Amino acid sequence: MIALGYLSPAAVKAxxxxxxxxxxxxxxxxxxxxxxxxxxxxxxxxxxxxxVSLGHRRFAWLEPDDxxxxxxxxxxxxxxxxxxxxxxTLEVVRAGKTRKLSWLPVDEQIAGWxxxxxGTLESxxxxxxxxxxxxxxxxxxCAWLRERGGRVPEDVSVxxxxxxxxxxxxxxxxxxxxxxxxxxxxxxxxxxxxxxxxLSAAEARKTVVYVPSRFVARKSTGPAPEAxxxxxxxxxxxxxxS
Length: 242
Hints:
- The chain is of the alpha/beta class.
- It has helices at 9-15, 41-53, 67-70, 75-85, 98-101, 106-118, 135-147, 180-196, 201-204, and strands at 2-4, 23-25, 35-39, 58-63, 89-94, 129-132, 157-162, 174-177, 208-212, 214-216.
- It is elongated.
- The N and C termini lie far apart (95 Å).
């Protein structure tokens, strides 16, 4: 059996005594069940390096404010460390509730995130590059920017996370891939080993496989906008004050 999503504490307790445990994906913390999850660090670090190579130095990280309840990985600290290593600044902004929006149709998710931005972000943004918790939030940010005359990526580069909406966006969204196929394949491999008896239930309960995330560059990121050129003050030549 493969269990999709995060298991409740009651479900974990029930499965801990089962003869054959389910493989959980994504894995939900320190529980005695086999699991497969994503390592977000490689993709996020590559995203920061990509943006720095384009001249960006002022970054923002945008995430929901209910991640503690949603069981989310602290991706913000990974982005902060990568920015620090590259000599870039980072502002972390928390807004909106992923539990409230994640079950809505895609267009309503994007509209909901855009509305959230209106009550949270300052216009214009101080950052020239924004990395977001997921693709829907990133597309909500793009919609919010367009409503204010902003251009992506000419004014602000935007990066999502997941890669399930990204390719269909306009412009196609640069993102960090959750590697859904690889995670599914690893979960199936563990489940087959359990079924065949090549992996014991006791050993499986101590097994967690982490699949590295992958950065995918598309059209929503571009060179950092140039700083406004200071106006030169000119003085007339040949005259004198009396």
